[in-house]
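RECORD TYPE: protein structure
NAME: Cytochrome c-type biogenesis protein CcmE
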Amino acid sequence: MTRKQRRLTIIAAAGAVLALAAGLVLFAMRDTIVFFYGPTEIAEKGVMPGTRMRLGGLVENGSVQRGPGQRVAFAVTDGKSTVKVSYDGLLPDLFREGQGVVTEGVFEGAGRFKADSVLAKHDETYMPREVADTLKKQGHWQGEAGAAAPVKP
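PREDICTED:
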């Protein structure tokens, strides 16, 4: 084997090892990737039941229902579509109707979502970019204050 052939063999072997490592990393991460959707996107894209994702929008006025223990049901809306959310656990202190919320969990189908975690906006200017963009398109965004306007039922 010449010197040139040895170098090419070493470079090819290193490239194969790097490709294998990248493939293993991507394979391991495929279960941890969570996509973000708004209520309208769920309806338009036909998200399959059992899909793990994040759902964001505004908590619909008059939709919060507290059950036994720490069970809570509420609706998330973007002004055009609504998804009913069920959650077992403590809600953030800033959670309330008309405010921005991001939930992470599993879409159950038929406009129902089972949340594992609920995040509420933390101050007057916070809103996830995707939620803010959707609300701007729907006309429910107050651009000056940076906060979303309450959705009228």
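COMMENT: The chain has two domains: 1-32, 35-148.
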